[in-house]
Amino acid sequence: MPEEISYGRQLTLLAGDDPGTTALVAVDPAGAERLVTWIELERRANQMARLLASRGVGQGGLVVVALVNSPEHFFATLGAWKLGATVLPMRWDLPPWERDRLLGLAGPAAVVGAWEDGPEGMVTAADVASSAVLEDGPLPDRVADPARAIATSGSTGSPKLIVTPGPGLVNTDPAMQATTQMGVRPKATQLVISPLYHTNGFASLNGLMTGQTLVVMERFDAARAVDLIERWHVNTAITVPTMLQRIAQLPDVATRDFSSIDSILYGGAPLAPWVVRVWLDLVGPTRFWFSYGGTESLGLTMARGDEWLGHEGTVGRPVGCEIRITDPDGNEVPAGTVGEIFMRRLDGAQTFAYVGAATPRTTDDGFGTFGDMGWVDEDGYLFVADRRVDMVVTGGANVYPAEVELALSEHERVADVVVVGLPDEEWGHRVHAIVEPVDPDRAPTPDELRAYARERLAAYKVPKSYEIVERVPRTAAGKVNRATLIAERAEER
Q: Which has the closest alpha carbon to 44: 56, 54, 33, 52?
């Protein structure tokens, strides 16, 4: 059985093995690159640990890290883990009201951030820089337990923290073990294109702990991401649909070199089939992976691109878990029937705890749910319809926004689209499409979009109203707050 090694000790071992090798390549929005070696990462983490300790952080404390994707984010995170503290990455651009609610829930021992009006005692960017003069030698070995938490407002708008139980030990995390299944080579180069406050971005620390070199973009840019794949011979990346679609829409993407890629892992919202096929052509069907899971670690499904070709639209089959699809009364439904997705890990491990929200319901025999709707086919492949909370009931019929978004996203002049349900006197709610055009000067008209949708969707699913916007308001992680979009439009009535 592999030895269990703390995150802090693992960094020390990696720095000892390859002190002068590049561990991080930080890329700013202008494309400038900053290289950090393993020995520099080890020393700066030790210095940050000493700075945090001087602010009262110790074993079991919680450290909020609210910095842009940067070496300093890694210095602070790894420094906290060396003290045995839990790390909570947080958005650096939160407005004070939302930020303060989350900090009130977290009750951190220390906050590392760059807010001008941050909480009293905040470790500032200047403090992080000045820590470079502190002692950089080894520290006592400690294990963070739990090692990480994620902040989210979810779909409800209410802030909560998702605390992932489990110690900060390498060789025990299922997410790390999944990289072997995907054929990622040892000490691979990973492109980090999601913000570190998001689950996908923070998961890059798993790769770092196995000796991967991380090429970290401060801000996602499709063209630059492809440049970095070619320049650094990137082997792997974790992505979300918006990023994949923007890269797929680059005019020269088919001529670019993706030969270094071992795996692209995608998860999150449904991905349009045309985008999938572009990526299967770019990297090959056996190197593109689909997944379904969540920060809560209720369970995981995965499928390779060649499996998807035989089960178009799937997010995979269970990996180390069981799936049950149920009706509103909790009864299991037959294959092919849409219901609520419940999952249960086979190892029986505790999965997560919420702070600031009630833990989602579980069945008496231990199945939990993210609140998503879907079905399984006869071969056991899972298909996600949509989140229950996003479903639009119009004229008594259920419409899943994700399905409508996928249909409209295939229009050649649509760059992005989000679908919501707006209050309507006749229908209860009407299906409304918010569309970002590829070219604002050649935006498709509502009539064109309506005709296009009618060719692909049942009549009741076709949006009854359309809105052209300069940009769909997604976060850096590719998410939209549907509740906010609905509220804004309801106020305009």
A: 52
Using a CB cutoff of 8 Å and minimum separation of 24, what contacts does 160-163 make?
160/105, 160/354, 160/355, 160/356, 160/357, 161/88, 161/102, 161/105, 161/106, 161/354, 161/355, 161/356, 162/295, 162/296, 162/352, 162/353, 162/354, 163/86, 163/352, 163/353, 163/354, 163/355
Same domain, 398 and 368: no
Each residue of 274-314: pLDDT tens digit? 899 999 999 999 999 999 887 777 888 999 999 999 999 99
Buried-state track 164-192, b at ≥16 Cβ within 10 A, e below 16: bebebbbeebbebebbeebebeeebbbbb
Give the pLDDT band (50/70/90) at residue 356.
Answer: low
The CA distance from 9 to 32, in Å, is 31
**Claim to verify: residue 281 and residue 305 sit in the same structural domain:** no
Coarse DSSP helix, strand, coil percentages of the chain, rounded to the nearest 5 percent: 30, 25, 40
Answer yes or no: do 328 and 472 share one domain.
no
Measured CA to CA, the distance from residue 308 to residue 315 in angstroms comes to 8
Give the residue from 389, 418, 445 where a domain finishes.
389
Of 164, 172, 161, residue with least CA distance to 147: 164
Higher pLDDT, 179 or 47: 47
374 Cβ partners below 8 Å, 6+ apart?
325, 338, 339, 341, 382, 383, 384, 385
> Are 216 and 194 spatial neighbours (Cβ–Cβ below 8 Å)?
no
> What's the CA gap between 284 and 280, in Å, rounded?
5
Q: Which helix (H) or strand (E) holds 434?
A: strand 428-437
**Length of the chain, in residues:** 493
Rg (C-alpha) for the chain, rounded Å, is 23
pLDDT computed for residue 370 by the predictor: 81
Which has the minimum average pLDDT: 79-88, 169-178, 217-226, 467-476? 169-178
SS3 state of residue 398: strand
Assess contact for 341 and 369: CB atoms under 8 A: yes
- Indicate whether 219 and 325 sit together in one domain: no
Residue 310 falls in which region: left (phi positive, over 0), alpha (psi -120 to 50) or beta: alpha
